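new request in #modeling-help
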Amino acid sequence: MTTDIGTWIAALLTLCILSFLYKDNPFYKFAEHLFVGVSAAYWACYYIYNILIPNLYNPLFVQGQLLYIIPLALGIMMIMKLFPQPAWMSRFPLAFIVGTYAGYNFITYLQTYAIDQVRATLVRFVALESWQEFFARPGAVTFLSAIALPVVVVGVITGLVYFFFSREHKGIFGGLAKTGVWFLMIAFGASFGYTVMARISLLIGRVYFLLHNWLHII
Amino acid sequence: MRRQGPLIITFITGAVIILQYFIPHRPFSDLQQLFNTWFLVIAVFALILGVGNLGKIHFERVFRRRENWPYSIVLILGFIIMFGAGIIWGIQRGTPFYYIFWNVHIPMGSTMFALLAFFVASASYRAFRARTPEATVLLISAIVVMLSRVPLGNFIWKELPLIGDWIMAYPNMAGQRAIWIGIALGVVSTSLRIILGIERTYLAGK
Amino acid sequence: MNIIERFEAVDRRIIFLLIILAVVIPLLFPIGLKIEVSDPVQRFYNAIEELEPGSFVLLSAEYDASTMPEVYPMNEALVSHCFSKDLKIVSIGLWPQGVSLNQEAMEQGAREYEKEYGVDYVNLGYKAGGIVVISALGEDIPTTFPQDYALRPIEQFKIMEGIENLDNIDLIVSLSAGDPGVREWVMIAHGRYGKNVCGGVTAVSAPAFYPFLNAGQLKGLMGGMKGAAEYETLLKQTGTASAGMDAQSIAHGLIIFFILFANFFYFMGKRRRR
């Protein structure tokens, strides 16, 4: 078992949080509130050291770049949101942030998702070499590899049919939309599998810390 | 002015960012660079606003002796100690700030999310049922992916990791692509509505 | 209460206990199951391997304590790979906590490979704004990051000589647990400036990045602790991710058992009700 005080504090706080599994209790509540307070202070210190000093204080007050008065003024107007009377002033900096994000989102989503993704889907439908490989060595993996390209094209198109055609899903549209739903279900299943993986990894990380860093058992 | 001013600012900033993409020359490129520099500063004030709000809520809770107020003192003390350590000794490696980060913040943050492992296991047991054909497809996909992604899958059947790779790279990718193309078109149209002043919900409130 | 109803109403704390055992026992008694390397991780590894010594890697850390067990092992493995190939690391963080975590990983790697801060690696710190920060980096790095994370002016660092914008960077790696993260790097650094981007992401978000991989917008992808374990395998190292893979296997097996077991009783109950 370690004699390092820091590791002991870390281990005890870990146990405080884990105690929530039994039921909500004062140890958990203590740790939860401590976490939020420490976390907020961490962020605040980084705002000061990594942004306010190098990107505002130094250019404005040390180098005398007066144009920085504008973001400073807008920043102060943002803080006014905390007070009822001048709260309306925060709309101006908020408008700047929203406008900038909207501008970036417009071009980046259009290019990265709408154009580039559609382009990547419109590839050849059949890969002959994959089918040759399948006939040479028939098996589950070679078969899956042979049907991969049509699967992508069909999956994307039917998925979009499901999303975009608001008319009743009957007849050919119904069939296409249903196929789209199946592709979406496979994607959601994969996401669920990966979510389980992520959560278990986080638990492994903490258990490893307790057994290795604290107890020195492994 | 209180309403028109923000709408004009949104239009100008949004339009400049879009225009510089298609005309990456002066004055649009200079304006974009200027807006970027300002944005870094203004964004941080938005985050400071969040910290200010947190303080406001917890100080109020302590002064009015609301339920669980002693825990608010813990929160405020945690903030003061960490913030004080950062301001007095700095934030680099080897400082008290760094020590608290590693021994107090990290273990609690990690463990809080590690709790989700237990809840996801419990949910798998209680709620994950093959009630419909679609739910069955989801369930099979989840099981195959879960098995194929870990060494156990390879141990059971050596082709399983390849099948997992295939599911991820093709049917999952196709489904994800359809979802994201849909999201992208939604984001593009919403962005345009915001820039043109049709969508104004962000100006709601006082 | 019949046996079916009893199984359906089992106390969740029994499930919790089984999960903790499924994690603890394999950590105490490792089985040593073989770790297979998947194609996206191999491509990530190759992207680093292809770089010439002295090339610049921009390492952006967008994660925090909540995802540390997944992403930190990636951070360690990646730094180790870069230093072993004499690559220069210029790092930033779009999440403030990523800055400290990445600094720790880089300092550990620097001790092992005898690298010097400011010459072989530098940590420029955090900026708020995500996509806007990346866009600003594309035009001008010194104006966006005039000082490092501990307020030292970047002019004093040899590694920053000649670095003006993303044009001077050979590969971008984002270790990300959400937004802003890999998505924003792909959108701006790849979409606008044509840079090669690799991503190390949490398992939760990994499936959503396969379209990027397929479209060539991402050069490589590491997903979750398993991705980190694969990378460690490629580097022939045994880090914390590899050590956790047996526990990961057994816990997955247990959850699959839960799903099948619960569905078995669900169908039995349905049949009986009919």
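bot summary: Residues 28-63 of chain B form the longest helix (36 residues).
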